[in-house]
Design goal:
This protein is mainly α. 67% of the residues lie in helices and 0% in strands. It has nine helices and no strands.
Length: 218
Amino acid sequence: MGFEKFLFYVFAAITLYSSGMVITRRNPVHAVLYLVLAFISSAALWILLEAEFLGIVLVLVYVGAVMVLFLFVVMMLDIEIDALRAGFIRYLPLGAVIAVVLALEIFLVVGPGHFGLQHFPKPPPVGSEFSNTEALGLLLYTVYVYPFEIAAVILLVAIIAAIRLTLRHRPVSKYLDPAAQVRVKKGPDRIRIVQMPTEGVAGPTASAGAGAKQESTE
C-alpha cells in the first residue's frame, strides 16, 4: 500500500465517521462541528484526486463561510433539547425505513456495477501547467450552462423565501420606511416646527420670584 492510498483510507474513514456523528449527535452544535470535520476531510480527498480547486473551494466557501454561519445561527437559537429527545424515539422507525431506502438507492446508483476502473479508467497524469480550474470553468459554462443557471435561480428563490420567512413585523418595534424617505421634500415634509408651552423658568430669576412670594405670604 502506497502512502497516497494510506491517506485516502484515513481521510475516507474520517469522512464516514464524522458524517455518522452529524446525524446521531443530539446536540446541534456538536453536529455542526462534525459536519465541518466532514467537509475538511472531503476537501483532502478532492486534493488527493488532483482536484485542488474543488478542495480549496470546499474549505473556503463551506467551512470558512457557510458552516461558520450555521454554527452561529444554531448557537443563537433557543433549541429545546428535551423536546428533540422526546420526538427521537417516536420517529425512529420511520427514520430507519427512510435510511434503508436511501442506502439502497445509493447502492443501486453508485454500486460496483456502474462505477469502477473497468467503467471509468484512471485518467492519465497531467503536468504542472494544466489548470483544472480553467477546465472546470470551460465545462461548466459550455456543456452544463443551463443546469448551472437553473441551480442559480433555485438558490435565489431559496434566499428570497428564507428572508421572507424570517421577516417579522412587530408592532412595538420602530422602523423607517425607505419609500417615504425617498418621497420626502423640503418644506413641511422635511422639518416641522412645534411650539411647546413653557412649564416654568429655571434660574436665579425663578428663585427670587419664589422667595418674594414666600415673604408676601408670611
